[in-house]
Amino acid sequence: MRTSASLTRIIGLTNAVVVTVAIIGLSLMPSESRPHAKPPVGTQVQQSVPEPGTTPVGQPPGVVATPEFAKQVGANELGLVPVLMYHRIAGKRLASLDRTPGQLREELEKLAKKGYVPITAREFATGDIRVPAGRFPVVLTFDDGHPSHFALDAGGNPAPGTAVAVIQEVAARYPDFRPVATFWINKEPFGLRDQASQAAAVRWLVDHGYEVANHTWGHPNLRWLKRKKVREQIVRLERLLKKLGVPSSRTIALPYGMMPHGKKSARSGSWDGTRYDFAGVFLAGAEPSVSPYAKNFDRGAIQRIQSNGKKGECRKWCSQYWLEWLDRHPGERFVSDGDPDRISIPGTLRGNIVAKRGLQVIAY
């Protein structure tokens, strides 16, 4: 991984690139591993290894990690986590940010085969990572609440070709691939304008384990707004979520990845008597995130990776590049110990962990 000094310069540059690409893309839219840390490991208290598919998805069955077991599975819960960023899922790509249903399916299947298990942005930001031992968390995030992300068909199921339908299909083929994601929405979630339809859509997602959270009311560039207007944009969307029956957001994705001048106002504040307080504020790029247990984890500016191939500006900053990089550098990747009450790390990393989380640390 790069040094912290170079990371600061690189992240600043790449966020600017991602923002520029996002603005162009939105303008084009229609109006409407370590060798021993391989995937199939999940462990009971007795340290036995169950057959693939017998572990409840994303919920390790009574695992109690020990130093010996953590070493056996190559646990490294201070490793990097890919937080993937998607926008429109379109049959025909009109902008570089777009992905087709086929491209989404191909990427998710690759993740499933390599041993990644999805968690929500909320679970990641709060450090509630429940992934089977030896597997790797990945966060799937979708911005803007576009109609291509979710719709219900006449039978009350996800409409074919939508992001949720693809996620559900991949999970059906790979039982250990937990079908969850985070959808950050604006004032007309999934293109729906009447509140009854909005509530029905959001209710289906929440009931099936998906996270629906705040992407501001009107998707403005918060950098251009005064602090009061920033807080208004956030609170108005929070009030909509409450009307739709969604719990208060614990995460927010910044439109265009742009931080407001008052950085703290993105994470917490109030407007017109309503308060908000986020556990995680997510940017628009352009590297894997550090672990939420790491000392240098900044929950007010969490990195994401644009889903894309390795062309143009994505030669080094998008999902294909970074997933291949993590494959080549397995010692840098977050590997779960399967025990949500313990944080397991190689002994050489002990000084990099946040000790006040209240979880037991296992250093082997």
Structural notes for this entry:
This protein is of the alpha/beta class. The protein has a single domain, classed as Glycoside hydrolase/deacetylase (TIM Barrel, Alpha-Beta Barrel). The chain contains nine helices and twelve strands. The N terminus is likely disordered.
* CATH architectural category: Alpha-Beta Barrel
Structural class: alpha/beta
List low-confidence stretches. 1-58
Number of strands: 12
Please identify which CATH superfamily we are dealing with.
Glycoside hydrolase/deacetylase
Number of domains: 1
**Largest sheet entry:** 6 strands, parallel
H/E topology pattern: HHEHEHEHEHEHEHEEEEHEE
Gap from first CA to last CA: 22 Å
Q: What is the CATH class designation?
A: Alpha Beta
Rg, Å, rounded: 20 Å
Task: Write down the oligomeric state.
Answer: single chain
* Beta-strand fraction estimate: 5-15%
Mean pLDDT reading: 87
**Which overall shape is indicated by the principal axes computed on the Cα atoms?**
globular
- The CATH topology assignment is TIM Barrel
- Helical coverage, percent range: 25-40%
Number of helices: 9
Write the layout of secondary structure elements.
Blueprint: H1 4-28, H2 67-73, E1 83-86, H3 101-114, E2 116-119, H4 121-125, E3 136-143, H5 163-173, E4 182-185, H6 195-207, E5 211-214, H7 227-243, E6 251-253, H8 263-267, E7 268-271, E8 274-277, E9 280-282, E10 305-306, H9 319-328, E11 342-345, E12 360-363
Task: Name the features.
two-stranded parallel sheet; alpha/beta; TIM Barrel; 364 residues; 9 helices; 12 strands; disordered N terminus; six-stranded parallel beta sheet; globular
